[in-house]
Specification:
about 375 residues; alpha/beta; TIM Barrel; 2 domains; 8-stranded parallel β-sheet; 13 helices; elongated; binds pyridoxal-5'-phosphate; alanine racemase activity; pyridoxal phosphate
C-alpha cells in the first residue's frame, strides 16, 4: 500500500454522526456536517449524511465542487463568508451561505435572480469570538435590507464560538443568541428557519441541561471526525477517536549518537541529546502535516521534523525500513494531511451510496438538480 496514507474508517464516521444525532435530535438540534477538514471528500461526506446529518457545510468552493462532481445533491452551506469575486459560483453551488456584508449579499442577490431557487442567507452575528459577524445592534437593520432583496431569502442567523477570540459558548451567551433571534424576528416580521448555534465547541452546552432555546442547528466537523470536544480535547463518550489514522513509512532505523559538533545545533535550532534508544526516520514532514498535532504511539516520542522527515525515538521493537508507523491526528494535523498532495486517502468500510446523500431539502429543486451541476 502507498505511503504516507490516511486510513479513514467510514463505519466509525457513520457511528460518530449517528451517536451525536441521537443525542442532539431530542434537544431540537440538527447536525450540519462540516467537511472542510477532509477537503470535501465525498465518501466521508456521505458517511456523515448516512449517520443523520441534515446537510453539509464547507468553507471553500473547490471542496463544494468536489462534492457536487461526486453527485452529492444535499443542501450545502458555505460557512466562510463568500468573497465578492466568487458570488456567481456561490449561488450555483450552494443553497445557503453565511454572510456579514451587504455588498456581498447584494452580489449574491444579483447572481441568484435569474435562477429558479432563491439563495439562502444566514447572517452571522458577533457573539464574542471576534471573527466573522455583525454586531447584534446592527443585525435588525441588515436583516431588513436582506428581506428587501430579490433572489435571496433571509434563512436565519448564525454564530461562531471558540475559534478566534476563544469565547466559549456558555449557557448565558447561548440564551442571549436566542434573544437576538426573537428580536430580529420581531423587527422583520418573519420566522427564521435556521439558527446555526456554533461548532463542535458547543457540544457541552448542547448535551447539557440548559434549554436550547431558538437554536436549531450545530455545525460539526471535529466531533464527528475525531470524536473529541475541541476546547477540552476530551473524548466524547461513545464516539470513536480513531476513525482516521495517518500511516507513515520508516526509511531509517537504528541507534544514533550525534557527533559532538552536530549535537550543538540541529536545523530546528534545538539541541538534541545523544541517545541509545531506537531512532526512526519516517518519510513524512512539515510539508505534509502539522507534526506537532500527531499523537505518538505508546512508547514513542517525537524528536523533531524537517520539511520531508519525521524523527522519533521508540522503545518498541525495532521496525525496519519499509515498516509502518500509525498516528492519530488532531484537527490541525488532519486538515493539513488531507490537503497534502503526497498523502493518499484509503477508505475502509465504504459502501454504495444510500438515498441519504442524495436527499434534497426542497423537492422542487430536486427535479432541476441535473441542470445545475
Ligand atoms: C470550521 C468551522 C466549523 C466546524 O468546526 P468544528 O470545530 O470542526 O466542529 C463550524 N463553523 C464555522 C464557521 C467554521 O469555520
Amino acid at each position: 500500500m502507498k505511503n504516507p496514507r490516511l486510513e479513514v474508517d467510514l463505519c466509525k464516521i457513520r457511528h460518530n454522526a449517528q451517536t451525536l444525532a441521537g443525542r442532539l435530535t431530542p434537544r431540537g438540534l440538527g447536525i450540519t456536517a462540516v467537511t472542510k477538514a477532509v477537503c470535501g471528500n465525498p465518501a466521508i461526506a456521505r458517511a456523515m449524511l448516512e449517520g443523520g446529518a441534515v446537510g453539509l457545510a464547507e468553507a471553500r468552493l473547490r471542496n463544494v465542487r468536489r462534492l457536487r462532481e461526486a453527485g452529492l445533491t444535499c443542501a450545502v452551506t458555505l460557512i466562510r463568508t463568500p468573497m465578492l469575486s466568487e458570488a456567481a459560483e456561490v449561488v450555483r453551488l450552494c443553497e445557503t451561505s453565511f454572510n456579514s456584508d451587504l455588498r456581498v449579499i447584494s452580489a449574491l442577490s444579483a447572481e441568484s435572480c435569474p435562477r429558479r431557487a432563491a439563495h439562502g442567507i444566514i447572517l452571522m452575528v458577533e457573539m464574542g469570538d471576534l471573527r466573522e459577524g455583525i454586531l447584534p445592534e446592527e443585525l435588525g437593520a441588515l436583516a431588513l435590507r436582506v428581506r428587501a432583496l430579490p433572489g435571496v431569502v433571509l434563512q436565519g442567523i448564525g454564530a461562531n464560538f471558540a475559534c478566534f477570540g476563544g469565547q466559549a459558548p456558555e449557557p448565558a451567551i447561548m440564551m442571549a443568541l436566542s434573544d437576538i433571534v426573537v428580536e430580529t424576528e420581531r423587527t422583520c416580521g418573519v420566522i427564521l428557519q435556521t439558527v446555526s448555534g456554533g461548532n463542535s465547541a458547543n457540544l457541552p452546552w448542547a448535551m447539557g441541561a440548559t434549554p436550547t432555546g431558538r437554536i436549531t442547528d450545530l455545525r460539526l466537523g471535529e466531533a464527528i471526525l475525531l470524536g473529541v470536544e475541541p476546547v477540552s480535547g476530551d473524548r466524547i463518550a461513545g464516539l470513536h477517536t480513531d476513525a482516521i489514522t495517518l500511516v507513515a513509512e520508516v526509511i531509517e532505523a537504528g541507534f544514533k549518537s550525534l557527533p559532538s559538533r552536530a549535537a550543538k545545533a540541529t536545523a530546528s535550532g534545538r539541541r538534541i541529546r545523544p541517545s541509545r534508544t531506537t531512532r526512526l526516520i519516517l518519510a513524512l514532514g512539515v510539508q505534509d502535516t502539522d507534526v506537532q498535532g500527531l499523537v505518538m504511539p505508546v512508547g514513542t516520542t517525537f524528536v523533531g521534523a524537517t520539511s520531508d522527515h519525521l524523527v522519533v525515538v521508540t522503545q518498541n521493537a525495532l521496525p525496519r525500513p519499509g515498516g509502518e508507523m500509525r498516528f492519530q491526528l488532531n484537527y490541525s494535523a488532519l486538515m493539513r494531511a488531507m490537503a497534502a498532495p503526497d498523502i493518499e486517502t484509503v477508505l475502509r468500510c465504504d459502501r454504495p451510496p444510500t438515498d441519504a446523500s442524495y436527499a434534497v431539502a426542497d423537492p422542487v429543486l430536486a427535479q432541476h438538480r441535473h441542470h445545475q451541476y
